[in-house]
Amino acid sequence: MKAVVCNEFGPVENLEYKDMPVPTLKKGQVLVKVEAAGINFPDGLLIQGLYQMKPPTPFVPGAEFSGVISELGQGVSHLNIGQRVIGLSMLNGFAEQVVVDATNVFPIPEQISFEEAAGLVTAHATAHYGLKQRANVKAGETVLVTGAAGGTGLAAVQIAKAMGAKVIAVCSTEEKLQVAKDNGADVLINYKDVDLKSQLKELTGGKGVDVVYECVGGETFGACARNMAWNGRLLVVGFACGVIPKFAVNLALVKGFSVIGVFWGAFTQHQPKDFIANMHELLTWYVKGYVKVVVDEVFPLVNAADAINKVLSRNVKGKVILKP
């Protein structure tokens, strides 16, 4: 089979598209013929050795995929050969075939395309976990989403609306803001054109924001931290600008808000039952039209480096998908 291989940590351009042996099944696993794989910002960091997880090299990156089950391992009885599924593998998804634990595979209905299904796992599941388990968003609260046109930012806009919140979208261009608006955002802020700190203070009448889903880092994080409501929750999701911010903890003391980490990968391992319940809820919301995957572009697997670099450039509206 063909796969995208990271032989050593370094530039994304160094990825190699090559023949690899078909992985061997173990007990409790399934073999999936990959029809599409989703790209996430951490994939690019992982390849460069900049992510918190550093797997032994060489490795095949790719954490989320969709496809068809082609073989069942011993003890797997709740899935069938030929079944359409989405899956989470942490690694090995950028390939024509992947082996994954059966507990991390979920059947998908016919009305969800493989391309959209491949983009549903990580971005939407991260936003869902962050807003539900970590922030405990209530209907009527205000949720601010930074990087609101990216994969997980756009998912957060949709999910916050599904939970009954008022959504403020923060993006860097008018085009991206339009995408956020089309997906349910109520208030739009172009942080390139205004002072974000002052704008948030004015918009909230000095009250501050109940929940911030913060994907960007740097100065954006600081502006949000200074505009939190009493009992607010500032969710630390990622640092797309490349700058990990320093936080003045006295702000949390004086303003009475919480800073909460959102690490979805660890959540799936520490709370597997909640993870499974979340995925079932997401799929239900998808069928009902509450959430959707916006596919920006589909690349052939051989052009994985170009696709990953597009995500790293933050020039994406929605999700980028690889197609074997």
TrEMBL record:
Transmembrane segments: none annotated. CDD domains: QOR1. Residues 10-322 form the Enoyl reductase (ER) domain. InterPro entries: ADH-like_C (IPR013149), ADH-like_N (IPR013154), ER (IPR020843), GroES-like_sf (IPR011032), NAD(P)-bd_dom_sf (IPR036291), Quin_OxRdtase/zeta-crystal_CS (IPR002364), Zn-ADH-like_protein (IPR051397). SUPFAM superfamilies: GroES-like, NAD(P)-binding Rossmann-fold domains. One of its GO terms (molecular function) is oxidoreductase activity. PANTHER family: QUINONE OXIDOREDUCTASE-LIKE PROTEIN 2, SHORT-CHAIN DEHYDROGENASE/REDUCTASE. This is NADPH:quinone oxidoreductase family protein. The lineage of its organism: Bacteria, Pseudomonadati, Pseudomonadota, Gammaproteobacteria, Alteromonadales.
